[in-house]
């Protein structure tokens, strides 16, 4: 199994990478779209909630106008005025007034009940669609909460609805077991009263209770977003939109209610409500000072986005799984042709690696000997590929190392002498590499050439450092290899075309080791100057004079001989 993975690693990586790219792209796009859809769905849910809450606010305000008109009409009614102001109206007046109240009740289905209160007699005249009807004293009244409202009427704004609940039957009736079948009534109470006197006590009052069930048709659970509605009234109470009961809040919920909702402009945010992540939508205060709040479970808001997300994740998982299976299968099919290419490439790479040193040495050797010109144009890149980092256009000098008594060493060690030359090249590179950029070349026979890029400008005038390094090379070769080497160094130049001339110079100068002895260090520039100074000049003038003198002597000899004869 491990061999299979090794052989098919290239193809598996290729196909798996493509699969992962597709899967990753799908996941990233899904993430982006998911958050975009969430934002859109939150805005849509907010718009739906806001429209419903705004409609409910308008209905409450409209109902306030209707209740106000109705209360004024009752106050102007001569029939009902007898109930409001007479301490003891007769039975006929009461019957006529109750009939009129029932007529109002029957003609307006949204009215739950109407109370007429006469403080002088302490009597409530009630017309209701269910529960208590007729005349009741304060002690007989089932709706005891209305007594509290009347006692504290100054705490409420005139004609501002008071959301509340009250029981249908009194405590005495509930004791008979009817209480279980008669739940409390949720209603919006509109209070109209006459309190024009010195002690600001109520002279009379008309109370209209509007059915919360009728008004909550749009306020109940929103079928679009599934939200639950709440009312934040002018008293700062948070009430359920359906039951009008006080909502219990923890400290965190109280905090965001008073800091992020109360008296704020219309908006929405996501927060925990009753331990559940919810979208909180709210309206700004209306003409009554009320705000309407809708709480929608966050899961229902992002339901569609979650469905899309899950579907895309499933698709991504299927693509990834299919891609892995396909990569495993296709790698078998692709292995044969690609495997042959890989084997061939590995073979070429191995050959290139094995012949790299030989190619580099041959190129440098041919350039130094003048057989090949220095690369120009784009060809220097070829030198760098071969590992040749020497800069021919920078300051450089050549150092020629020649093995002394090479013929004897060759006869004694034969083919084993080549590793010694490699060792000499390594020693020279190690010693000079800290000061120069070094390139070593095997020049065949007994010679090794060092090409040194000059890094220190002081070398143009001072060769002490160079000669110190050359002595270290000589001593290291003798100590580790038991070889004596003579070293010849050239002058400094920055002209690539002078490379061959410098090599010939150090090569010729190295011949002076026959005069200076083995292990010598020769400055090629000095030997050139000495050769120029010691150049032999043929004495042609002296030769001419000698020839003339010779001719004169011969002539005289012939003259003497002729006289004697």
From TrEMBL:
Keywords of this entry: Membrane, Transmembrane, Transmembrane helix
Transmembrane residue ranges: 12-36, 311-330
Put simply, this protein is called Cache domain-containing protein
User: Which organism was this protein described from?
Assistant: Paenibacillus polymyxa (Bacillus polymyxa)
């Amino acid at each position: 199994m491990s061999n299979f993975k090794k052989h098919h690693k290239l193809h598996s990586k290729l196909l798996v990478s493509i699969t992962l790219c597709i899967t990753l792209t799908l996941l990233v796009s899904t993430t982006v779209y998911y958050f975009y859809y969430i934002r859109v769905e939150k805005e849509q849910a907010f718009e739906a909630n806001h429209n419903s809450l705004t409609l409910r606010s308008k209905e409450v305000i409209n109902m306030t106008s209707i209740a106000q008109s109705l209360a004024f009409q009752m106050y102007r009614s001569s029939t009902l005025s007898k109930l409001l102001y007479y301490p003891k109206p007769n039975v006929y007046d009461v019957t006529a007034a109750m009939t009129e109240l029932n007529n109002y009740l029957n003609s307006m289905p949204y009215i739950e009940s109407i109370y007429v209160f006469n403080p002088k007699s302490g009597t409530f005249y009630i017309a209701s669609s269910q529960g208590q009807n007729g005349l009741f004293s304060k002690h007989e009244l089932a709706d005891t909460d209305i007594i509290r409202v009347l006692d504290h009427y100054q705490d409420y704004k005139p004609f501002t609805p008071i959301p509340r609940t009250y029981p249908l039957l009194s405590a005495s009736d509930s004791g008979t077991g009817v209480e279980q079948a008669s739940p409390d009534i949720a209603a919006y109470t509109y209070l109209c009263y006459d309190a024009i006197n010195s002690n600001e006590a109520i002279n009379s009052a008309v109370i209209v209770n509007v059915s919360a069930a009728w008004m909550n048709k749009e306020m109940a659970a929103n079928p679009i977003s599934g939200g639950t509605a709440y009312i934040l009234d002018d008293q700062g109470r948070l009430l359920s939109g359906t039951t009008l009961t006080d909502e219990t809040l923890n400290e965190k919920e109280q905090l965001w209610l008073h800091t992020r909702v109360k008296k704020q402009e219309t908006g929405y945010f996501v927060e925990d409500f009753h331990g559940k992540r919810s979208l909180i939508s709210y309206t700004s205060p209306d003409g009554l000072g009320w705000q309407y709040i809708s709480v929608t479970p966050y899961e229902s808001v992002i339901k569609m986005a979650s469905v899309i997300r899950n579907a895309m994740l499933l698709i991504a998982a299927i693509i990834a799984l299919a891609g892995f299976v396909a990569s495993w299968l296709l790698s078998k099919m692709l292995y044969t042709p690609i495997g042959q290419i890989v084997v061939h490439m590995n073979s070429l790479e191995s050959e290139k690696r094995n012949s790299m040193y030989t190619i580099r040495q041959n190129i440098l050797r041919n350039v130094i000997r003048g057989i090949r010109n220095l690369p120009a144009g784009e060809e220097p890149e070829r030198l760098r590929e071969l590992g040749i980092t020497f800069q021919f256009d920078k300051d450089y000098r050549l150092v020629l190392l020649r093995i002394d008594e090479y013929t004897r060493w060759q006869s004694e060690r034969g083919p084993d002498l080549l590793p010694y030359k490699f060792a000499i090249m390594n020693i020279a590179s190690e010693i000079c590499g800290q000061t120069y950029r070094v390139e070593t070349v095997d020049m065949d026979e007994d010679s090794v050439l060092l090409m040194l890029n000059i890094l220190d400008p002081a070398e143009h005038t001072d060769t002490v450092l160079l000669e110190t390094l050359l002595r270290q090379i000589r001593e290291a070769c003798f100590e580790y290899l038991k070889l004596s080497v003579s070293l010849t160094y050239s002058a400094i130049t920055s002209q690539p075309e002078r490379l061959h001339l410098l090599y010939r110079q150090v090569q010729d100068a190295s011949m002076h080791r026959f005069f200076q002895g083995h292990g010598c260090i020769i400055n090629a520039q000095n030997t050139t100057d000495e050769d120029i100074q010691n150049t032999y000049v043929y004495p042609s003038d002296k030769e001419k004079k000698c020839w003339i003198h010779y001719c004169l002597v011969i002539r005289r000899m012939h003259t003497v001989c002729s006289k004697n004869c």
